[in-house]
Amino acid sequence: MTFERYLKQRSQVNKPRVAVWKTGQIGLNGAALREFGLTEMTHAALFYDRDKKKIGFRFADSAKEEGAVKVVRRGGGAMIFAKGFLRYFGIEYSRARRFSLVFDEKQALYILQPE
Length: 115
Fold this sequence. Notes:
10% helix, single chain, mainly beta, 115 residues, 8 strands, eight-stranded antiparallel β-barrel
């Protein structure tokens, strides 16, 4: 019998990710902010495609965007308090879920993609 050594795997903290937490908050990791140039954005307008069940964001550097909510910086990432948005559209948030973030040029929106 031959033993193999386990070497701890590095987590994918450098991959842009977004989490919808069971508290109704949406969290973006630092990699998402950096990769998409969102580090200076202070607000986001939230969108939902009912047919495809996808969440979208349009980030802004001011509150002038209609319906924009504040993006709060925490550590290296950011979060959006979105409980009202999630409830309004009937989006499930009773358990935390992770998503990849992609930019849709046609829609000019950042879209959450299930992992």
